[in-house]
């Protein structure tokens, strides 16, 4: 029979070993996640070089749902806006895309302030408003026209054109892809000859 002191020493050794191993395992997990993120971002950048492809990006985090009843398009104080965390998300997405080789893009955006601010925080080049990207959350009758106009714009992208990023809203992206994107998520689509969209990649914030 072993002495009680031996059991105590063995238990202590196991506890110390676990404490030493946990940080190393955590570090390995973080490194693996970083590698996957880099690979995903690289794939997105490759796809954006292809004709008839574009990145549909939901605006970054803006707490709440919809917009206040007193919403006015040209007054950001009447709208739901990005949080500081949302601005940081957009800046980080822009950084990752640049690190993967996307030097510059044409960034089209909804005219809602949270979308326009997301587009600017990406810091990927020229930002232009594109009304079909405006939210139709309050007016579902616009859905078909919105889908048609966005798909037509993507289909018109030719080889040699700047990569196209379109910053919009959940309802718009869902109408085109069937996906309910997270805030700040990118969904890369290709518009097929028959006019429908095929999802080619996704990039989480």
Topology:
Blueprint: H1 4-47, E1 53-58, H2 84-99, E2 106-109, H3 113-122, E3 127-129, H4 143-155, E4 164-168, H5 170-177, E5 186-191, E6 197-203
Parallel strand pairs: 1-4, 2-3, 2-4
Antiparallel strand pairs: 1-5, 5-6
Helix pairs in contact: 2-3
Signal peptide: 1-26
Protein name: Phosphohistidine phosphatase, SixA
InterPro entries: His_PPase_superfam
Summarize the structure.
This protein has helices at residues 4-47, 84-99, 113-122, 143-155, 170-177; strands at 53-58, 106-109, 127-129, 164-168, 186-191, 197-203. It is of the alpha/beta class. The chain has one domain (39-203): 3-Layer(aba) Sandwich (Rossmann fold).
CATH architecture: 3-Layer(aba) Sandwich
Query: Span from first to last CA?
Result: 57 Å
CATH class: Alpha Beta
Q: What's the overall geometry? A: globular
Spatial ordering of strands, largest sheet: 3-2-4-1-5-6
Low-confidence stretches: 12-21, 23-33
Strand % is 15-25%
Relative helix content: 40-55%
- Give the C-alpha Rg: 23 Å
Q: How many helices does DSSP assign?
A: 5
CATH topology title: Rossmann fold
The counted number of beta strands is 6
Q: What is the CATH H-level superfamily?
A: Phosphoglycerate mutase-like
The mean pLDDT is 87
Largest sheet: 6 strands, mixed
Compute the number of structural domains. Answer: 1
Secondary-structure class: alpha/beta
SSE arrangement, N to C:
HEHEHEHEHEE
Signal peptide: 1-26
Protein name: Phosphohistidine phosphatase, SixA
Keywords: Signal
Organism: Tistrella mobilis (strain KA081020-065)
């Amino acid at each position: 029979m072993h002495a009680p002191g031996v059991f105590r020493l063995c238990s202590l050794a196991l506890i110390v070993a676990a404490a030493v191993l946990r940080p190393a395992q955590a570090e390995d997990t973080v490194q693996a996640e970083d590698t996957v993120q880099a690979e995903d971002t690289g794939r997105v950048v490759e796809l954006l070089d292809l004709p008839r492809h574009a990145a549909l990006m939901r605006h970054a985090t803006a707490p709440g749902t919809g917009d206040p009843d007193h919403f006015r398009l040209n007054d950001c104080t009447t709208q739901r806006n990005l949080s500081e965390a949302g601005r940081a998300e957009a800046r980080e997405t822009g950084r990752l895309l640049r690190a993967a080789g996307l030097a510059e893009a044409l960034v089209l955006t909804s005219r809602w302030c949270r979308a326009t601010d997301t587009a600017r925080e990406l810091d990927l080049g020229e930002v232009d408003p594109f009304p079909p990207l405006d939210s139709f959350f309050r007016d579902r009758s616009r859905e078909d026209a919105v889908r048609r106009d966005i798909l037509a714009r993507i289909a018109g992208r030719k080889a040699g054109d700047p990569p196209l990023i379109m910053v919009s809203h959940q309802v718009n992206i869902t109408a085109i892809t069937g996906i309910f994107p997270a805030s700040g998520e990118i969904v890369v689509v290709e518009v097929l000859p028959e006019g429908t969209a095929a999802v080619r990649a996704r990039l989480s914030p």
